[in-house]
Amino acid sequence: MTSQSETDRPILSLQGIKKHFGGVKALDGVDLDLYPGEVVALIGENGAGKSTAVKIMTGIYRPDAGRIFVAGEEVEVHDTRDAWRHGITAVHQETVMFEDLSVAENIFMGHLERRAGGFLDWKGMRRRAAEILRELESDIDADAAMNTLSVAQKHMVEIARALSHDSRVMILDEPTAALSQAEIHELYGIIRRWQAQGKAILYISHKFDEIFAIADRWTCFRDGAWVGQGRIADVTEDDLVRLMVGRSVAQLFPKPEVTIGEAVLEISGLGNAREFDGISFTLHKGEVLGFYGLVGAGRTEVMEAIFGLKPIDRGEMRMNGKPMPHGSPREVIDQGIVYVPEDRQHAGVILPMSIRDNLTLPLTRALAKNGVFLNDRAEQAVGNRFRERLSIKCASLDQKVSELSGGNQQKVVIGKWLATHPGVIILDEPTKGIDVGSKSAVHAFIAELVRDGLSVIMVSSELPELMGMSDRIIVMHQGHTVRELARADFDAETIVAAATGLGRLQEKRHA
Amino acid sequence: MRKLLRAREAALALIIAGLVGLITLRAPVFLSMGSLDTIVTDGAILSMMALVQMLAILTRGIDLSVSANMALTGMVVALLSRAHPDMAVGLTMALALGLGLLLGAINGVLIAYVRIPPIVVTLGTMSVFRGLVFQVSGGAWVNAHEMGPGFIGFPTARLFGLTSIVWIAALVILIGWAFLAHVRKGRELYALGGNPVAARYVGIDDTHNLMLVYAIIGLVAGLCGYLWVARYAVAYTEIALGFELNTVAACVIGGVGMAGGRGSVLGCLLGALFLVIIFNALPIIDVSPFWQQAISGFVILAAVILNSRGDRPLGKLILRRTEAAPVAGAAS
């Protein structure tokens, strides 16, 4: 099938697609060809630009440069309806559904079918929905309310929705995340039927076993750039890992020479019901401890649990040698642990508040006279100190944080926590989505923290940054810590392999 | 001082000044001492209630039960006064505060602990409180001559030329301002409304704060319930019917953001003042009573539109500005 189709014209072809968001380049001239009856696996690390490419193909984003061809003809994809018209549909990573509507309504929303007179043809749509679901060998009732379905069933509906369009190109973005093993095999069956019908399939996954099971060809992105493509039969898992990582850690990181001190935070056997289990690690004074893993590996969940935002069912935490009870964020802050969350706008800053008030928010209690009345002068002093120390670019501390750029907002978040004089600072994706200049400022800042005797936990999906700044790296996979490496043993391929679960497989094979 | 003259409040003050000017051109009597006295006294209750309503809106909530709370508390103290005409004013006020606090605490428990959205809770308690007014009064009025002389006399008794109702309002507003500007809890309310998730990360507990907000609202509503009944010298089942919407309107006109986390005491007061002027001016300038409600609605909308123009984000600060340059609009 493959050899013959390769001579065909691609159904969908991207050429030299570029896209940037503010100062951040998401895609820098990528190519992608999809042929009828073929499954192409799109591979790349977190942030390599895979999802951005999908969003461009489906009209959610417009490219800044580059051309899109459908069956040899150049087209513009302005929105999802355009994409549907060209026969392109996608099953997105996170299912976006109308929870209170029925399955049939969800499948046809956006392209509701009408009968004569302009009225909606509910009868027809229900029948079609039932047909599609039967075709998927699913027993979901087309009239069921969406919110009564399981996550896996919702995913099936999402796939049914994609099928309700007469599409030639099917894009599956991490389709198996919510599926059981049996359901994954059903999905393979569906994909093979699509292949037989001559559809082109783009399969995005981090899981190599799936890629080797279903894909005919691969295309790899790295840091928003195209790095290669080829036939799956010609490569091994190790080759793909090398392609995904494939860069030298050329950037310079201001890693300071700090003598690592005694244990500060000791975590052993931490686990809860659904998210993570058997998490053990020790953080020392002056150490930068990196956490790597794929998106959804449970890194953020572990940190939130330590910070008192998620339940803990098992395990022990010790701070400075003394047992630390699992408490509220307030109590954890009082223990000297602070957490700088990943999503600044959502969880970091309070946009309608002034810079000063944001900076002093965790401190209001400590600064307040008698613990009750706000101390404006002390707050102003703290504000000035951290404005200078972090070089926050602003006209005045009274300015609202909403007027600052992303990088400066990030500085406010970090400054807010530093003002509490913590012993341990947990940084979750501290440089995500900020420009290069602000990034190196954050790195310099981490260096300064450990020089001052703080201990840092850095959760990051950017391997170069993590390898550049950490003393040790802990790799998580599906809610477990799977690998721990000292700085001398850092190796990008080993780390990525562990994060994709390969390390475990290989260990099992050896055993 | 710089904070007092923030653009949004200054704009509203200008609108009010213009409005007063226009009204006075048409009816000079509007600026007479008697008329101004009425405005200040009428404005007293609205300002207090708008101020506490702002606490709810700041924390992304709303309290629709405020006027029903006022009615129920007002009716209960009026009935008590009928039964005991010689009851001391201090005791009456304490009872009004206590009953109002209790009613507010009911809202607080349902919102903060049972976690039901404020609009749903207070819509429900609004009906319950209003229904209880019928229950306790049997649907009958309590008229001026049935209430004790001290009960009626106190709110309109004068001290240094102003009625005591105005002095009480001034005190409540002063406390409110101090609370929001200079007390840690007040700052926490802004944080909670501005970004509840971020507030949680700095250890601000929303349960206690929400409980506090609705309890304070109830407390002040109870006080205003007594003042209302005593000022108008009559208690009946429809006391302050629909008044909760005036409190919300005053907040919105005063620039309190319905999305939470944004609003000042000064803005809130100007909003209340604006409404009272409109309500009082329309009869004076001979607008037909049939038109009054529609016109006041229209003017409120116009004020909100004018005011919201200052709300649009200025955009991110990307260009580096020098320290000395005046910040355009000084919008923060």
UniProtKB/TrEMBL annotation, chain A:
Keywords: ATP-binding, Cell membrane, Membrane, Nucleotide-binding, Repeat, Sugar transport, Translocase, Transport
CDD domains xref list: ABC_Carb_Monos_I, ABC_Carb_Monos_II
One Pfam family named in its UniProt record: ABC_tran
Subcellular location: Cell membrane
UniProt keyword annotation of Nucleotide-binding present: yes
Domain called ABC transporter: residue spans: 12-248, 258-503
Record's bilayer topology term: Peripheral membrane protein
GO MF annotations in UniProt: ATP binding; ATP hydrolysis activity
Gene Ontology CC, one term: plasma membrane
InterPro entries assigned to the protein according to its UniProt record, in alphabetical order: AAA+_ATPase (IPR003593), ABC_carbohydrate_import_ATPase (IPR050107), ABC_transporter-like_ATP-bd (IPR003439), ABC_transporter-like_CS (IPR017871), P-loop_NTPase (IPR027417)
Keyword Transport: yes
Family of the protein in this entry: Belongs to the ABC transporter superfamily.
Record-given protein name: Sugar ABC transporter ATP-binding protein
Organism: Siculibacillus lacustris
Automatic annotation (TrEMBL), chain B:
Annotated coiled-coil segments of the chain: none
Keyword Metal-binding: no
Record protein name field: ABC transporter permease
GO terms, molecular function: transmembrane transporter activity
Keyword annotations from UniProtKB, A to Z: Cell membrane, Membrane, Transmembrane, Transmembrane helix
Matching InterPro entries: ABC_transp_permease
Transmembrane helix as UniProt keyword: yes
GO terms for cellular component: plasma membrane
Regions that span the bilayer: 12-33, 39-57, 64-81, 87-112, 119-137, 157-180, 210-229, 235-258, 265-284, 290-308
Organism encoding this protein: Siculibacillus lacustris
Membrane-topology annotation of the record: Multi-pass membrane protein
